[in-house]
Amino acid sequence: MDYMTARLSIPMSSPDITSDDIAAINAVLQTPILSIGPQIDAFERAVVDAVGAKFGIGVNSGTAGLHLGVIAAGVEQGDLVITTPFSFIASTNAILYERGIPIFVDVDPQTGNIDPAKVAEAAEAAVSSQWSVVSNQRSAINDQRPMAGGRLKAILPVHAFGQPADMDPILNVARKHQLNVIEDACEAIGAEYKGRKAGTLGDMGVFAFYPNKQITTGEGGMIVTNDEDWANLFCSLRNQGRDVFDAWLNHSRLGYNYRLDEMSAALGAAQIKRLDELLNKRARVAGWYDERLQGEELIEVPHIVATTTRMSWFVYVVRIRPPAQRDEVIKRLTEVGVPSRPYFTPIHLQPFYREKFGYQRGDFPVTEYLGDVSLALPFSGVMTEEQVDYVCQHLCECVFHSVRR
Ligand SMILES: *Cc1c(COP(=O)(O)O)cnc(C)c1O
What is the pTM of this model? Predict the structure, then answer.
């Protein structure tokens, strides 16, 4: 059949659920224990085994895990955390939950991950109070610092799209200034940086299991850490501040209900057994895209850098080069039944952040460029080669027609 006439319906993403996964959830429902039971323990153990960390703490979203990391790092009102504006908004919102102030630094143009040289520069500026050196953090720093008395507490890098950030120089900056490193590994379970697993490189890492992630629990997340005190703190904080070894009704600190239920944990435990298979399937689909799009003049395929010894494909994001127009491409693709999205939309340009911190276009040029040209294509491990063909054929057509002549 002709690609251009046979119309396929292609979802943006799809979970990969087997009959074993469904059976695992059903088995939980035959028991009376639907929360705080054996499933979360099993899931935590499986994740810890898969990534080589000491402790795993299941939570009910990746965002919840990041929030607890920000608390553990000691972030209080006005404290500073260095992070990236090229991310999903949750990574920065977690800082704001504790009234911390994000110090955005721009990203590497190849990977879209936080630029370690700029992290070092921002850390020096923050600790020596040379605020003007930190590029354009206008009202974010200049206005808020006096009332804040904030100290630089942490670095929060994000492994964007499943490719690890350049962690070694970031860890050096952290060591030098005694900062905690919270890895947002929500898009990168199983990814490797110089042979080491994403999520285990800093003081703690967070994975997320929303339905579009590499493995899913519906809603859910997992913190991993090698620090026993932090692990105990996370267990307490996710469960209303109850002390782990204390009586059920003894609340030692302000806590939350961030517990992961047993049905979700059972699904996660079943899914993580197939982590390698799931990642390999996604890598195969990414390969199909690469083959078809490499060499297209106005389409740039993802850059995988040498430090990435294993990619954990979360999304397949191309760049639409001018004079082709990304937004016009999205519109035309929609008309032929192919969904696509700008990804990411820079956090500092989100209305809430503009309003609160006074950011504007021009503050982080690399992030803004990537925000303007990046296009996430339909992607999952269950996509067929025929679907990838269909997307690529239409993408090339739409890109060609989007050029203003
Ligand atoms: C998915 C994701 C999260 C967490 O998402 P939840 O929906 O809260 O599980 C955090 N950061 C990034 C970069 C993500 O992609």
Answer: 0.94
